[in-house]
Design brief:
By secondary structure, this protein is α+β, with helices and mostly antiparallel strands. It has 2 domains: 75 residues, 2,3-Dihydroxybiphenyl 1,2-Dioxygenase, domain 1 (Roll); 47 residues, 2,3-Dihydroxybiphenyl 1,2-Dioxygenase, domain 1 (Roll). Helix content is 18%, strand content 38%. The protein has 2 helices and 8 strands; from the N terminus they run βαββββαβββ. An 8-stranded mixed β-sheet has the order 2-3-4-1-5-8-7-6, with helices on one face.
C-alpha cells in the first residue's frame, strides 16, 4: 500500500455524555464545547504545526437509553473504495455504506475482526 493512514477523528458514545465530558476534562485536560445537541466537539489541544501534520479531533455523543457505550476511530485513507474493498475481502462487514456529503469528507464504517468497527475517511 505504501501510503499513510493516520487516525484523524474519534467519537466517544456515552450513556451519560455530561459525566464523560467532565471525566475527559478532568483527566486529560481537553477543551469540550457546550452541549447543544447529541454531539459535542472535543479539542484535545493538538495543533497542526506543519501543513502535512495530522492532528486528531473528536466528539462525545449522548446515546439513547439502553445503548452500549463505545469509542470509534476514524482512519484517513487516500482511496476509500479500495480500503472498503480490502476490508470486505478480509471478512469485514459494511456497517455504514460510503457517504459523500457535499463539501465534506467521504466516509464509510466497517466492522472488522472481533466486531471492532472502524470509520474510514477520504478527504
Amino acid at each position: 500500500m505504501g501510503s499513510s493512514s493516520p487516525i484523524v477523528y474519534f467519537q466517544i458514545g456515552a450513556a451519560d455524555a455530561a459525566e464523560m465530558t467532565e471525566f475527559c476534562r478532568d483527566v486529560f485536560g481537553w477543551e469540550i464545547g457546550a452541549t447543544t445537541g447529541p454531539v459535542t466537539a472535543v479539542d484535545t489541544g493538538a495543533r497542526q504545526v506543519d501543513p502535512n501534520d495530522i492532528f486528531v479531533s473528536g466528539s462525545i455523543r449522548q446515546l439513547g437509553e439502553g445503548a452500549t457505550s463505545f469509542v470509534s476511530l476514524y482512519v484517513r485513507v487516500s482511496d476509500l473504495d479500495g480500503a472498503i474493498e480490502r476490508a470486505l475481502a478480509r471478512g469485514a462487514q459494511l456497517v455504514v455504506p460510503r457517504r459523500d456529503p457535499e463539501g465534506g469528507a467521504s466516509v464509510a464504517v466497517v466492522r472488522g475482526p472481533g466486531g471492532v468497527a472502524f470509520g474510514i475517511v477520504q478527504l
